[in-house]
Amino acid sequence: MGGAGVTAGAPTAPVRATLEDVARTAGVSLATVDRVINRREGVRAKTVARVEAAVAKLGYRADVAAARLARGQSFRFAFVLPTGGNSFMTHLTEQVRHTADWLAGQRGFIDILHVDVFDPDLLAGALETLSPAYHGVAVIALDHPRVRAAIDDLTTRGVAVVTLVSDAPSSRRLHYVGIDNPAAGRTAATLMGRYLGGREGTVAVIAGSLALRDHAERQFGFHQILSSEYPQLRALPPLEGRDDSARTRELTAALLVRHPDLRGIYCCGAGNRGIADALEASGRAREVVWITHELTDHTRRFLVRGTCDAIINQDPGHEARSAARVLLAHCAGEPISPDQERIRIDIFLRDNLP
Amino acid sequence: MGGAGVTAGAPTAPVRATLEDVARTAGVSLATVDRVINRREGVRAKTVARVEAAVAKLGYRADVAAARLARGQSFRFAFVLPTGGNSFMTHLTEQVRHTADWLAGQRGFIDILHVDVFDPDLLAGALETLSPAYHGVAVIALDHPRVRAAIDDLTTRGVAVVTLVSDAPSSRRLHYVGIDNPAAGRTAATLMGRYLGGREGTVAVIAGSLALRDHAERQFGFHQILSSEYPQLRALPPLEGRDDSARTRELTAALLVRHPDLRGIYCCGAGNRGIADALEASGRAREVVWITHELTDHTRRFLVRGTCDAIINQDPGHEARSAARVLLAHCAGEPISPDQERIRIDIFLRDNLP
DNA sequence: CAGAATTTCAGTTGCGCACCTCAAAAATTG
DNA sequence: CAATTTTTGAGGTGCGCAACTGAAATTCTG
């Protein structure tokens, strides 16, 4: 703007135009402006135009605080989270609790329901018997016909459903809050391939369960890139550690014995303590590249110690807030800004830990 | 909670406790509750305790919409951004504009002032002549005595100052919104070292200007890790490309000629088009590991094409929103949640691009 | 052209809170 | 005990908007 590259004069008037200002300059009453603004019917086209001109002229923008207060509506959301669960789920639950705290100031209320989300019948049952008082539901979904049906049913009943962390893509859910899992797997593969330079050898993949859509998708993405871009690395068939440390330790220990040329391990689920134990016990922790998911107290320690080489992460805080924002915006008929709601695939090395 | 792992009964009452509810259960008047809530004086300790007990019992939380409306205060913030500038700065400016849009609904108003932020005198001058009508300022700082003095002066006058992207650590700014630059440099070095496996060779560092604190810090962090962890890689003294593509192309071309054993380039500033051009012209784009900063349309293309190997990024959208949130929270006397305001060091590979 | 049906508009209320005033009540002091 | 100070109550106002009520203006009908 200004000549010398500096424009530090007095700011433009900080006063907001109110509905009344609009009414006055349009020469109509408050009520008429309200009808135009909120798209109620019963206003002549000519009057609408007059009001809209006034709105444009004054740069009127509704005060969201006043609008919310006047509307006086409040919303109830249910977050369906796993019972028990691993560190990541514990973090997520905690973040949902924080989000609930914040939302309580915004006329939004979150109830956390704990369900065994890995059992399709239990999960579907929980969704089916959900109180009709809820305006929205966030659920760690399972891509299973019964669950899908339950989600579709809720949607039909007018309840907004967002899937959280794990999606049910073919359902009629409103939105998915979580990462692109195949892309996360590809990211891990690229990192693995580059870290291993041109070396030949074997790479193992350990999942919690391939019945879980997110684990399967990560594994798929990983294999896709590894086989096409790094043919000198031989990927073993994926193992299932059931997200259990003890079992994962055994699997890892067996791998290390059976494959002296083991160069890398990609863990696309939980049970990381087992992997760390086995790797450290074998004495090959530094030479084997281990890439895993989710930043927790444990994985952070393994990364700092050098046992783990990279962590692919999704930010549970962001996910919890995003789910709440999407639900609230949908129920209040407000728009959302897509790129604020996109959950990124974080890569953490020892050096960029938050 | 529930026996079968499912607790999907009727939610607790969705009604919010109001100030009046608190007054009634505490057996005092609205005015007294107000005095307690807003920490006004003139209330006996015993009465304070009674009110606080009622607040706790009812789980009372002020309705932020109503509070904001009643308070009726509004805030003006100035964002001091560079004139012209590179892609990153253009993105940032756009994101600040979006943020301004959002903030306008929250009784916050942002004016964007364009200044040549690389000239300490101009920048300090702009800060000094800033209208006193502003409650807060976000500025891309320069770590220079005059700028520092200007910031301290604003702070003394009661204006909240946050530094954005580039800090002035020794000033009395309220908060720094940006990444840990030495850590970003270390991250680049680790990636470089790992990507190059055990190979020997030369690594070049290109900065915009080492007089810029962020560039210097990145370069420092990079060298630190490279020399201590990857001694087989020889880091050349940093070059200054002045964030200019043409000049950076020449520098890069000269590097490629002079150092046949050049294995990697770390660019901790702008001017990436020059690097890409020179690398692609030399035919060594695939063998030289190039790591750079800031995800833009250009760097994204270089990454997808394989010319660039990794991008260290700070999210300008997050930074703009965070600066606005911090300023607003400070002025309104509200708390901020630190881990939501922490700007992460993103690593982007071809596979996890947003 | 009267009367009915419809469209268009103005006026009013209240959301929950902050902030203010003034007077009454209680506690403290000499 | 009276005089003084401290604490509390009652009440009001207004923030900007949504939503409702009822009346006036317009159009339609026979």
Give the helix/strand layout:
Two copies of one chain form a homodimer.
Chain A (H helix, E strand, L loop, with lengths): L18 H8 L3 H8 L7 H14 L5 H8 L3 E8 L4 H18 L3 E8 L4 H9 L7 E4 L5 H12 L3 E5 L10 E3 L3 H15 L5 E7 L5 H17 L3 E3 L3 E2 L4 H14 L3 E6 L4 H11 L6 E5 L3 H9 L4 E4 L2 H17 L5 H4 L4 E3 L6
Parallel strand pairs in A: 1-2, 1-3, 3-4, 4-5, 6-7, 6-8, 6-9, 9-10, 10-11
Antiparallel strand pairs in A: 11-12
Helix pairs in contact in A: 1-2, 1-3, 2-3, 5-13, 6-7, 8-9, 10-11
Chain A binds a DNA duplex (30 and 30 nucleotides) through helix 2 and helix 4.
Mean pLDDT of chain A, to the nearest integer, reads: 91
Query: What structural class do the secondary elements of chain A suggest?
Result: alpha/beta
> Low-confidence segments of chain A, ≥5 residues, pLDDT <50?
1-9
The total of beta strands of chain A comes to: 12
Task: Please describe what this structure looks like.
2 copies of one chain form a homodimer. Chain A has 354 residues and is of the alpha/beta class. Chain A has 3 domains: 44 residues, lambda repressor-like DNA-binding domains (434 Repressor (Amino-terminal Domain), Orthogonal Bundle); 134 residues, Rossmann fold (3-Layer(aba) Sandwich), CATH 3.40.50; 133 residues, Response regulator (Rossmann fold, 3-Layer(aba) Sandwich). In chain A, the strands form 2 sheets. In chain A, strands 6, 7, 8, 9, 10, 11 and 12 form a 7-stranded mixed sheet that branches. A 5-stranded parallel sheet of chain A has the order 2-1-3-4-5, sandwiched between helices. In chain A, helix 10 runs parallel beside helix 11. In chain A, 48% of the residues are buried. Chains A and B meet through helix 4, strand 2, helix 6, helix 8 and strand 12 of A and helix 4, strand 2, helix 6, helix 8 and strand 12 of B. The structure holds a DNA duplex (30 and 30 nucleotides).
